[in-house]
Amino acid sequence: MTYTQFIHCFNLCFVIFVCTASLFFGAVFFINQNHTVDFSRLAEYHKGMPSIVLDDEGNEITRFQLDRRMPIPLEIIPEYVINAFLAAEDWYFFAHYGLSWRGIARSLLVNLARGRKAQGASTITQQLVRLLFFDNAKTYTRKVKEQVCTLLVEMQFTKEYILETYLNNIYFGAGIYGIEAAAQRFWGKSITDVTLDEAATLAGIICAPSRYCPLIYPLSAQRRRDTVLASMVHRGVITQETCTEAQQKPVSTVNMHEKRYAAHFIENLRLMLEELVGKHTLYTKGLTIYTTLNMPMQKQAEDAFYTQVSTLRESKKMPLDGALLTLAVQDNAIKTYIGGYDFATSQFDRVQHSQRQLGSIFKIILYAVALKLGKEFSDIAVDEPITINHGTQQWSPRNYSRDFKGPMTLAYALSHSNNIVAVKTLLEIGIAPVVALAEKTHLNTTIPPYPSLALGCIDTSLLSATALFSIFAAQGVYHTPYLLVKIKDNFGNTIWKHSPEPAEQIIDSITTGKVSRVLQHSMRRYIKHTDSPLTSLDMIAKTGTTNDSRTCWFIGASPTYTTGVYIGCDDNRALGTNVFPIHTAFPIWRSCMEAWHHRVQKFVYNPLLQELCINARTGQPCAERSTGTMHIFV
Asked: Staple 213 to which of 173, 431, 502, 507, CB 3.0 to 4.6 Å?
């Protein structure tokens, strides 16, 4: 754009601005003749009943409700607290008349430069008006009404009264309104006693409570706090030395409540509900929320998980963590959900967001394809050294045991997780059909068409891995996992109900039956020589170990539940030699299933399948009680 074009554009914009402003202020004064603003509506806005969350047996899990507001006079709020909010939200609050033309101009230039709405220009008065009278709908009509109402508020009330009302009613996340309630909830003290860094933390939350609430996202809250402190330096209300000292302190909160079970589940549910029904409705309208979680099972799972991870942390001297998930085989309803070792110190949800290499769990897909293409589990392959040329690269896969066992059946290879036979099988049947099936199983990851795919060299989440394994427990049918059943309002009317996606027959029931029969043999190997009640139950299982034991998987299923567990460090460090899932993840799984075994049913297989007893190494039919036998389906 030339200088002349810029001047013409500027003049046109100025004329439009003057005309719009004239109409706008004319509307304001016309409306003001017959309208006033009543702040008493704030009190009514925050009245309401908590929403109650129930598990699948009707037991209360938690409540979503507002923390009790604690109004506090502006004159006793420390000056540095007020300066932090002004620096973060509206530095020229005492200089403008509700609408910041400087802010509007700045945001307009930024938005034009970026070609989208990248920056807003709301003043403190506008934010208060929006909280009091409007929703967050991004429409021009609402924006105009909001601005008119903002000017009316500025005409009727003093700046001090507006600021006091704002600070006592603004939202801080997790159902907390008002700075006094926030200070009490976060640090167990009054706003008059908070430190500078805590004041900056509070001020930083306002722009996005869902991202910066320190109870849930302490690291994000700390980064935002540091930005507020830097802004206070820029405004000249604190020195750089004071800023640096405050920034060196971590953002931490006081645990005001006892241990919460299902904390990661509840947080996922809360975020989902805020989107579905809105924050105000969730925290004040007395909803009844029905979920899939089974709280007795959840408590048993958490106790087993915490005990085992604590022991592993102590013995390995590593910050080990992990996750656990249980799905109901019938429809993949989520029954237990553990997103990590300690929600209070890490809100990162490892069930959905931790991407771990799948390892040998993937072999169930590989052998399912092999069976579909005509292979049988009685077929023989040789475990021997091989070198594969892939493009310009050479690769020599190894077994975890570093030895070779010679001829064996495919059933033996799967049940003992042999790597060489898996790779040779992949190359024999072709990589393309394995990739095709893997992409249908909702692993939500890129499936690389390489020979290493046979060893599970793909990253996926525990949620996807457990749902994959559940396909084999459900005779080849995939259901989308879900956690919310329905929502009822205060009058008992259903206002939302889960609509399941159509079930998908990913793999035929004959193929999954054949794979499951071998996985039953694996399960018996894991629990042999124990007096566990699981020895008499119908179950399938598979371990998975990645390079240097960075991740240890154990996923097992009964006809009732599929439970997946992984153990590993968040930084993906190696766990050391001789670290196996049977010693890390399996004890958690076993403890859970032993507690739940009374709920377990029996597998039902396709009636066309015929059982055959074979020698696991030669594949030849043999007598029932012979040494080294396996039962397979043909």
From this structure: 173
